[in-house]
Amino acid sequence: MDLWTAPLAGGPLDALVDVPGSKSLTNRYLVLAALAEAPGRLRGALRSRDTLLMAAALTSLGARIDDDGGDWVVTPGPVAGGADVDCGLAGTVMRFLPAVAALADGPVRFDGDDAARTRPMGPVVAALRTLGVRVDEHGRVGHLPFTVHGRGSVGGGQVDVDASESSQFVSGLLLAAARFERGLTLRHTGRTLPSLPHIEMTVALLREAGVVVDDSRPAIWQVSPGPITGRDVRVEPDLSNAAPFLCAALVAGGTVRVPGWPTSTTQPGGLLPGILERMGGSTRLDGDVLSATGTGRIHGVDLDLHAAGEVAPTIAALATLADSPTRLRGIAHLRGHETDRLAALAAEITRLGGQAEQTADGLVITPRPLSAGTWHTYEDHRMATAGALIGLRVPGVEVEDVATTAKTLPGFVGLWDGMLAGSAVPV
Ligand SMILES: O=C(O)C1=C[C@@H](OP(=O)(O)O)[C@@H](O)[C@H](O)C1
Ligand SMILES: C=C(OP(=O)(O)O)C(=O)O
């Protein structure tokens, strides 16, 4: 397996980092555009493994997606059966497309990477069956691979879903629900609900596309049947992918700026400025440029990250370099992400000489002097960027398979090197 020696920061940073488009927004816009009544255009769409898999899957399901000077132009078509959907390791593909496939005029088979076959899918399968859709499972119950037998239409109605393992179970059903004959009323029945901002993102994008959504009751979403408008949209930068760069300013000192930062957003990365301030950084928004400034001194925090689990690996890496312990809570669902992220973080931090223990719903990280070693990444893009962050301060951190960052950020190494090269340039 390839090892990449994470570069050390030579001194305080002074860099502007242009972060590509959001995975979550790109893949939602793609699904909605493919189900719309007229063509749509995505500007600033992310091109990464997860979004290319989504585009390929929607194409095989009958949409046409053309590149027009860097924009994606999506021409919807009738949802076609007979497709084989490769989900890779993308939660958005495996959780968003089964409800789309239910609208197809024939069977659609879903599978993905070996690691994808361990990610929870049971609530998606159960919900489709409740809605009268036949799903044949081919492996372990509640997991990929399976076949959705579309019959050209879905009646819709009411469904209960336990989304405590992933908000994507809710988002996936809501995204297709306006195309169900009676729409959908979805009630979440589990005790916890992770990543609420991602569900709010789904609701916001549906409404922007003209769909009526009632979310006035807690943990119940009602989508009325109706057309989805084909639109011309611009994708915000991926704020979760901005996280390691902004955190770099706290590790190395200096300032990192990210342009295109939205004034309001449903991305969970919108919570980052507040988190970085609690950990010893300062942030400011000048126009659309978010700056994070650090001194190299980082403080431990007690943080509930259930709304923004996506940034937990990055925050955990930062916490290893702090001046006091950190407790991360509310993130039991990270055990079903690209890998069991709680186990992976605890193992890799410990391997470098640090101290990290798993709790029932998170991690406790006690800073210790860290030393050189291999940082395993478990095919997880955010494990790779977490290793890079620690390597800014700890010499000899060898990040395994840094190419796994291509899941959401193919240019990661170039951007990271550019950030460090820009560190001497006065702005
Ligand atoms: O809907 C989305 O785009 C996402 C929802 C979240 O999933 P979970 O609720 O499974 O954490 C998040 O972690 C993932 O990266 C993207
Ligand atoms: C959990 C993540 O991805 P996915 O969309 O595959 O669930 C992530 O990007 O942190």
From TrEMBL:
Domain Enolpyruvate transferase, chain residue ranges per copy: 10-413
Domain of life: Bacteria
GO molecular function annotations of the record: 3-phosphoshikimate 1-carboxyvinyltransferase activity
Cellular compartment(s): Cytoplasm
Binding site for phosphoenolpyruvate: K23, G91, R119, Q168, R341, R382, K407
Entry keywords, A to Z: Amino-acid biosynthesis, Aromatic amino acid biosynthesis, Cytoplasm, Transferase
One Pfam family of this chain: EPSP_synthase
Catalytic reactions of this protein: 3-phosphoshikimate + phosphoenolpyruvate = 5-O-(1-carboxyvinyl)-3-phosphoshikimate + phosphate
SUPFAM superfamilies, per the entry: EPT/RTPC-like
Positions contributing to 3-phosphoshikimate binding: K23, S24, R28, S166, S167, Q168, S195, E310, H337
Active site positions: E310 (proton acceptor)
Pathway: Metabolic intermediate biosynthesis; chorismate biosynthesis; chorismate from D-erythrose 4-phosphate and phosphoenolpyruvate: step 6/7
Subcellular location, principal: cytoplasm
Top-level class of the enzyme under EC nomenclature: transferase
EC number annotated for this UniProt entry: 2.5.1.19
Xref: PROSITE patterns: EPSP_SYNTHASE_1, EPSP_SYNTHASE_2
InterPro entries linked to this entry: Enolpyruvate_Tfrase_dom, Enolpyruvate_Tfrase_sf, EPSP_synthase, EPSP_synthase_CS, RNA3'P_cycl/enolpyr_Trfase_a/b
Recorded family membership: Belongs to the EPSP synthase family.
Function text: Catalyzes the transfer of the enolpyruvyl moiety of phosphoenolpyruvate (PEP) to the 5-hydroxyl of shikimate-3-phosphate (S3P) to produce enolpyruvyl shikimate-3-phosphate and inorganic phosphate.
Summary of subunit composition and partner proteins: Monomer.
Name of the protein this chain belongs to: 3-phosphoshikimate 1-carboxyvinyltransferase
Organism: Cellulomonas fengjieae
